[in-house]
TrEMBL record:
One Gene Ontology term of the molecular function aspect: G-protein beta/gamma-subunit complex binding
Residues that, per the record, bind Mg(2+): 51, 253
Keyword Magnesium: yes
GO cellular component: cytoplasm; heterotrimeric G-protein complex
GO biological process: adenylate cyclase-modulating G protein-coupled receptor signaling pathway
Keywords, sorted A to Z: GTP-binding, Lipoprotein, Magnesium, Metal-binding, Myristate, Nucleotide-binding, Palmitate, Transducer
Keyword presence, Nucleotide-binding: yes
Protein name: Uncharacterized protein
PANTHER family registered for this protein in UniProt: G PROTEIN ALPHA O SUBUNIT, GTP-BINDING PROTEIN ALPHA SUBUNIT
InterPro entries per UniProt: Fungi_Gprotein_alpha, Gprotein_alpha_su, GproteinA_insert, P-loop_NTPase
Positions annotated to bind GTP: 47-52, 222-223, 247-253, 272-276, 341-344, 398
């Protein structure tokens, strides 16, 4: 009996020891796993391009998009196209632009505007009239002045109020607005030939094109022109989204996602967060053990407002968020890779939209270089810990895989250091 009792004790001791060893091994395994994983956060305000950067990492590091992701993208892309056109249709009314509006030459604008001023009661946009009036009578008024844009906007508005609009385009607009939203679901997530025809008719209208040229004044997806260009292809029954389509697709992120990569033999865990104001409270729980931050700023939005309150400037929002987030005590020694993103849009925009309208301290000749340097400097000056952490600026075009591949070749070394 004594012997039996002793073997029972031995067995219990062996089990306990074995459990302890298992636990140690597990802890060691976990320690080894976490030790070699480089944790990277992609931060930035809403629609700055964070998820697009993550998509590029999937392409560049060989994971790509799964067939399920591709299939799910299809209806999101069709909806992106529909909502783009619906935004334009609504803006035609809010900006008071008549369908068929033809942008006048400078001479035509001056003449027409003089007529409108003479019958001042034809419209009541008093502020715009007063601000444009001086310029119209100014013989130095030239083609590059924003004053011309004010004058044309007044003319469009005056025409919108006085003319009976082209009924066929209004019918097309009605068809498209009813095809969006719930109706889109009813149609099985497909866009029929009738709706596609209406979209084409509207997109080719001179008034809608003029409205598109004023897109900084209302909310419109950055990829609108891309969807319009590819509308026939993406409305085909057998349509399968391409990599480029998925890069241009807009889906707001509502939860933090973790994606794992192996980059040059080392493991990365990349966290993509939702950037809209309501999403930001979820960020802090991921702030531990971060190796580097990629901070994305939509620099082309220097003359646009954010969606959340429709009044805060997009780049100002990004600067404020950068200041509060990247100076967080947990990030005192965390390097920040700053992506001034959407430079393809920025390059086009600076030809017509003065930066100084929104950033009065920008006093240089407006070139791509002077504007990007100005914004880089603004971000760098917000670094509260310049001795402990470095901000590495890059100018990015997130929807362009070659450009991002090039940027990442430089960035990977910084991230892994
Ligand atoms: N033209 C252009 N479009 C871009 C660029 N970067 C992103 N976009 C587009 O901008 C839109 C928004 O990009 P997202 O990556 O969804 O933005 P996000 O920062 O993840 O937004 P949230 O998830 O709301 O925080 C998408 O339609 C992208 O295709 C760019 O460099 N150029
Ligand atoms: Mg996102």
């Amino acid at each position: 009996m004594g012997c039996a009792a002793s073997s029972e004790v031995d067995q219990t001791a062996i089990t306990a020891t074995s459990k302890a060893i298992d636990k140690d091994l597990q802890l060691e395994r976990r320690r080894q796993e976490t030790e070699h994983v480089t944790k990277l956060l992609i931060l930035g305000s809403g629609e700055s391009g964070k998820s697009t950067i993550l998509k590029q990492m999937k392409i560049i590091h060989g994971v790509g998009f799964s067939s399920q992701e591709v299939a799910l993208s299809r209806s999101a892309i069709l909806l992106n196209m529909l909502t783009s056109m619906i935004s334009l249709i609504h803006a035609m009314d809010t900006l008071e632009i008549p369908y068929g509006f033809q942008v006048p030459t400078l001479e035509e604008a001056k003449e027409a505007y003089a007529r409108v001023v003479a019958q001042n009661d034809a419209y009541h946009s008093k502020t715009a009239v007063e601000s444009s009036e001086d310029h119209v009578n100014d013989p130095k008024l030239d083609d590059t002045l924003p004053a011309k844009q004010d004058v044309i906007a007044c003319l469009a508005s005056s025409e919108y109020r006085s003319m009976t609009q082209k009924s066929d385009l209004l019918e097309s607009a009605k068809l498209i607005t009813s095809a969006g939203g719930v109706e889109f679901g009813f149609r099985g997530g497909e866009i029929g030939e009738d709706v596609l025809g209406a979209i084409t008719e509207l997109w080719e209208d001179s008034g809608v094109q003029y409205c598109y040229s004023r897109r900084n004044e209302f909310r419109l997806l950055d990829s609108c022109a891309y969807w319009m260009k590819h509308r026939a292809r993406i409305c085909m029954e057998a349509y399968v989204p391409t990599q480029e389509d998925i890069l241009n697709m807009r889906i707001m992120t509502i939860n933090v996602t973790e994606t794992k990569f192996v980059v040059r033999g080392s493991k990365w865990a990349v966290y993509d967060v939702g950037g809209q104001r309501t999403e930001r409270k979820k960020w802090a729980q991921h702030f531990d053990d971060v190796h580097a931050i990629i901070y994305v700023c939509p620099v082309s939005g220097y003359d646009q407002v954010i969606n959340e309150d429709a009044k805060t400037n997009q780049v100002l929002e990004s600067l404020n968020l950068f200041e509060t987030t990247c100076n967080h005590p947990l990030f005192k020694e965390t390097d920040v890779i700053l992506f001034l993103n959407k430079i393809d849009i920025l390059k086009e925009k600076i030809k017509t939209r003065p930066v100084s309208d929104s950033f009065p301290d920008f006093a240089e000749t407006q070139t791509f270089e002077s504007v990007s340097n100005y914004f880089i400097h603004k971000f760098q000056s917000l670094n509260k810990y310049p001795n402990e952490k470095t901000i590495y600026p890059h100018l990015t075009w997130a929807t362009n895989t070659d450009q991002i591949r090039f940027v990442f070749a430089a960035v990977s070394a910084i991230i892994m250091k």
